[in-house]
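Ticket #4471: structure export looks truncated?
Reporter: QA, pipeline team
Priority: medium

Steps to reproduce: submit the single chain below to the structure queue and open the exported record.
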Amino acid sequence: MRSIQAAMVLAIMACAPAEAAERLLYTAEPGFVVGFRAANANEAIEEWVPKGETVQNWTRMLTFQRFPGLVQRGRTGPELLDFIAGRIASVCPGAKTTAIARSIVLGRETATLTTRCPRNPATGKPETTFYRAITASSDVHVAQVAFRSVPDAAAEKKARDYLASVVLCGNAPSDAQPICKAK
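Actual output as written to the record:
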């Protein structure tokens, strides 16, 4: 079973063509393996879990999603995160969210959000998820670091630092950055 936050994001998708020239760049977290990968006209998703865990039974999870054509349908990364923030309480009683922080990274609108579910009704465990959404010219890309626990301050910092390292490369002038050319 996916994290409750990933499931909520799926609720707003609609069919649209993919924009193949844009790609999310991230590094594999040491000790993590791909637990699930799928793509269709609505979404591309890749979920990473610690080796020996599954996407049904995990302690930490990295999720990378792409929502083709979401921008043409009037949704940006910050709006997607706003939707998640607005829905979290309906799927997790007592959930809390941070304010959505917006910035421009490599010339693209980027937003971050943290959600804290004190007890996921499906698992009985707490779930904390850190999000980074990047608005591309057509698509919205979302990277997540999730914990099935209440992470300590060091784990939270590591999650935020990891998400800060995730970048989008594609057709924009800012993609002349060395990081985009090197990969």
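Status: closed, not a bug. The export was complete when the record was re-opened. Leaving a note from the reviewer for reference: The helical segments are 4-10, 77-91, 153-164, 178-182.
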